[in-house]
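Hey,

Quick one before I head out. I ran the complex with iron/sulfur cluster overnight. Inputs first:
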Amino acid sequence: MVTIVDTVSATPLRPRHPEKVNRPDALSPPKPDWIRVRAPNTRGYADTRRIVKENGLVTVCEEAGCPNIGECWDKKHATFMIMGDTCTRACAFCNVKTGMPGALDVLEPEHVAEATFKLGLAHIVVTSVDRDDLADGGAEHFAQTIRAIRARCPNTTIEVLTPDFLRKEGALEVVVAAKPDVFNHNLETVPSRYLTVRPGARYFHSIRLLQRVKEIDPTIFTKSGIMVGLGEERHEVLQVMDDLRSAEVDFLTIGQYLQPTRKHHAVMRYVPPDEFAGYQKVAYTKGFLMVSASPLTRSSHHAGEDFAKLQAARAALAR
Ligand code: SF4
C-alpha cells in the first residue's frame, strides 16, 4: 500500500504531491474539441462557493479540479469531501493533496448538514479522502454525517462515495447501517492498470465491497465508475462491467480521464463520444439499471437527476 507519511505538513512550501515531484513529466496529447466546459463565473456558482466557504467545507469539485464545476455549482450541486483535504493514498490520477491528515473535525457532520440545507439540495453526494490512518477508515464519521443530514434535511436523499476501507474490519457495515440511499465506490480503472494507477487498492476487494453492500441491505442502490483513457483495452472495460454485475451493482459511470498536472499519469487516449455511447449501450444489455458514459461523466455529475431515474428504473422492474 502506498501511504505517504508527512512529518512537515506545517511547512507552507510543502508540495501538494511530494511523492510525485521527482517524477519525469508525463505528456498528454492536446485536448480534443469535445472536452469543453463552461467557465465558472455565474451567480449560482458564486452563491455555492460562499456557502461552502462559510461552513468551512472542502469539496471534491475544487480539490480534484473537476471540469464540471461551472455547470454543477451554478445549479448549487457541490460534492462535499469530508475528513479533510489530505489523503493517505497517492493514486496516479488524483489531484487531492497527499500526506498525513489532521484530526477529524467533530462538527463537520453538522456543517455538511447545514450547507445541504442552505443549498436546498434534494440529493447530496458526500465523499472523503482515504483515511488509512484511522482505525475504522473514517466509517463512523461517514455514518455521523449521514445521520446529521437526515436530521436537518429529512427529504434530501443521500449518496456516499466511499474509500475502499481496505483492512478496516467492520467499517463498511457501519456506513451501510446508517442507510445512505446510494452507496458509491469507484473502481477507477480496469484491473490490469491498478498497480500503476491505483497502487494502494485491490480490484477484487473493491468489487467485494460493493457486493457486501447489497448482501447487507439490498434496498440501497449501489454505484461504481471507471475512467477511460488510462491505457485500458475495450475488452477489459467489458470485463469490469461483468464483474460489477456479478456484484449486483445498479449504476455504472464511465468518463474520460483528464491529467491534473504533468506529474500525474498521462492521458493515453481521448476516447471519442461515439465509443462512450457504445459502452453505454453494452452496459445496459448487461443489466445495469442506469449507465452514464460520456467524456465529462463524473460519478457525482447530475447525481440528483440520475437518482430519480434509478428509482424509476427499479420501480419499472418491479411491475
Ligand atoms: S461533477 Fe461532481 S465533482 Fe464535478 S463539479 Fe459536479 S458535483 Fe463537483
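The longest strand covers residues 221-228.

Talk tomorrow,
K.
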